[in-house]
Amino acid sequence: MSAPMQESVEHARTPKKAALASFMGSAVEYYDFFIFGSAAALIFPHVFFPDESAQASIMSLATFGFAYIARPIGAVFVGHFGDRIGRQKVLMFTLVMMGAATFIIGCIPDFNTIGWWAPAILVLCRLMQGLSAAGEQAGASSLTLEHAPDNRRSFFTSWTLTGTQGGQILAALVFIPVVALPDEIKYGIGWRIPFWLSAIVVLVTYFIRRSLHETPTFEAAKANNEIAKLPVGVLLKNHWRDVLRVICCAFIAAVSTVYGTLAIKYGSEVGNVDEGITLWLVVAGNAGALFTQPLFGTIADRIGRKPVFIYGAVGSAVFMPFYLLSMESGNMLLQFALSVLTFSCAYAAANAVWPSFYAEMFSAKVRFSGLAIGTQLGFLMAGFAPSIVAAMGGIQEGGWVATSLFTAAICAVAAVSALTARETYRVPTAELGKRQAVTV
């Protein structure tokens, strides 16, 4: 095979390779995030806090939210370098940081051993996870979008978020045997094993991502001397409206944390659903999304990002109360059916489309920064949603009402914000973000 032909074949493979690298990176991130969320709901109140009261549960769920404090700060830092030195280099950094923080969590002594240092170290590691996560999805989405053909950007970038489902499924499958262990093992070494196993996923992803080259879009900008010295300055001057829009649209991510963290707590405490079953409900919803999210991405390439995203927001608000009520029904078939409907058939639509929908609002010069800062500020709502709703009585008898109203409110904000966005599915990649920059 001649050199030009080999180069052409390699370029043709790049979108798939970029999608795989993004899938695996998101799988690592959400494996780590989901085992932390599950442990915060089911394990940490017994291990890292002085008692097992409702107050301990709220404090434990709050540690889940601390990563979301670090994420906006990390978004500025990581976004700056992602737009300055390239997407691929920064994604290697975020991968290693996430893996290290998760492994260390599995090594923290319990409260009885080191007292309040235990939750303090836990929060520190959680902040490290947040700094890493701030750049992971933004960088992966930017990288995949810039490698993808113009008419298939939503499909290829949907694999970034489909990786989150892969990570959550893997995490749940690892965590299910843990919750079935006797208490002395479960609260001893048992819960630590899923955190240590994250190292394997990180190593696999590291070798996949290391061989991925930088995007043609970024290389062209670099060759043409179009790299911004201070990307955040350009972002706030030319794209501030889009940043605000992304922040509000990103509220939709709170559906995922309510579904994956708060609902399992509600099911186990109010509905008397076995803890293992609550985790299997999450596995079922995420397994369905592995198939529906690429489908929603394909649909968005044909009819546009906005209608698919808005459908996902509205559908999530409609199905959530039925899903929570099913936890009290004692009907396992109904619980699994509503889990799949809520997550795979509703939320998955918005989840699949947002990487392309948000990224296409920005020019290549500030895409990483805009996507990172906008999403991470919006994700603050997702991070603290479990503890906010728990404080509102969401894990008490009848708490499904507060949880459902909260979910409906954040979905309404996301849907209305999406309505104000420009539809970009027919705009060539090279032209994305340019009209906004001229008119502001």
UniProtKB/TrEMBL annotation:
Topology versus the membrane: Multi-pass membrane protein
Domain named Major facilitator superfamily (MFS) profile: residues: 18-426
Segments crossing the lipid bilayer: 20-44, 56-78, 90-108, 114-134, 155-177, 189-208, 243-264, 276-296, 308-326, 332-354, 366-392, 398-419
Keyword Cytoplasm: no
Pfam families assigned: MFS_1, Sugar_tr
SUPFAM superfamilies recorded: MFS general substrate transporter
Protein location: Cell membrane
Protein origin, superkingdom: Bacteria
Record key words, sorted: Cell membrane, Membrane, Transmembrane, Transmembrane helix, Transport
CDD domains: MFS_ShiA_like
PANTHER family: SHIKIMATE TRANSPORTER
Name of the protein: MFS transporter
